[in-house]
Design goal:
Helix content of chain A: under 10%
Strand content of chain B: over 45%
Number of helices of chain A: 0
Radius of gyration of chain A: 14 Å
Radius of gyration of chain B: 13 Å
Distance between the termini of chain A: 41 Å
Structural class of chain B: mainly beta
Order of helices and strands of chain A: EEEEEEEEEEE
Number of strands of chain A: 11
Shape of chain B: globular
Structural class of chain A: mainly beta
Oligomer: heterodimer
Largest sheet of chain B: 7 strands, mixed
């Protein structure tokens, strides 16, 4: 069964304190792994797509990496405005466009 | 990226009643998806709505409870019928991008009392 597990559930950082969020996945034939940011009261906002092991994507203070079993979202020198819930999702090679989401990591960055 | 307008943004409803959520996209799309996000939980796909055909429902979701309309390539509605407090959740519509990523509306926060 396709599954996505994110850890930790919540992460509290001081401004400037770099860290990583983890996304472990089990899927039959990975079509793509996605990262989203969700602010309270809003829908998820697309950040990155990773397609194959070894791939990396960067955007401002965020960097996403992918291995055959997990993905990391590295946050370098975070700022309070990076506080949000970060969602990981996978799409299998079978089953059309069905996307499986993890429960998310709630990130709090304190000034 | 697609721009998706969803309404209402929030509502408080009496149990036993129904609520229809609207989703409007600024471009034509073949597929639209409806998700539910319960407090503290991940997004769960309710159904896939294709224009011109009946929606495809995921396990645990039935058409009588969540009827969906898809009258054209830019619009869809989801109705939550005969509501109970367990239906209190955020409901989201979504469309796929060129790379299979998803673009979401801002969500509808439903509270059933």
């Amino acid at each position: 069964e396709d599954q996505v597990t994110q850890s930790p559930e919540a992460l509290r950082l001081q401004e400037g304190e770099s860290s990583s969020l983890n996304c472990s996945y089990t899927v039959s034939g990975l079509r793509g792994l996605f990262w989203y940011r969700q602010d309270p009261g809003k829908g998820p906002e697309f950040l990155f797509t990773l397609y194959s092991a070894g791939e990396e994507k960067e955007k401002e203070r965020l960097k996403a990496t992918l291995t055959k079993k997990e993905s990391f979202l590295h946050i370098t020198a975070p700022k309070p405005e990076d506080s949000a819930t970060y969602l990981c999702a996978v799409q299998a090679g079978t089953g059309g466009f069905k996307t499986i989401f993890g429960a998310g990591t709630r990130l709090f960055v304190k000034a | 990226s697609a721009v998706i307008s969803q309404k209402p943004s929030r509502d408080i409803c009496q149990r036993g009643t129904s609520l229809t959520i609207q989703c409007q996209v600024d471009s034509q799309v073949t597929m639209m998806f409806w998700y539910r996000q319960q407090p503290g939980q991940s997004l769960t796909l309710i159904a896939t709505a294709n224009q011109g055909s009946e929606a495809t429902y995921e396990s645990g979701f039935v058409i009588d409870k969540f009827p969906i309309s898809r009258p054209n390539l830019t619009f869809s509605t989801l109705t939550v019928s005969n509501m109970s407090p367990e239906d209190s959740s955020i409901y989201l519509c979504s469309v796929p991008g060129l790379g299979s990523e998803a673009f979401f509306g801002q969500g509808t926060r439903l509270t059933v009392v």
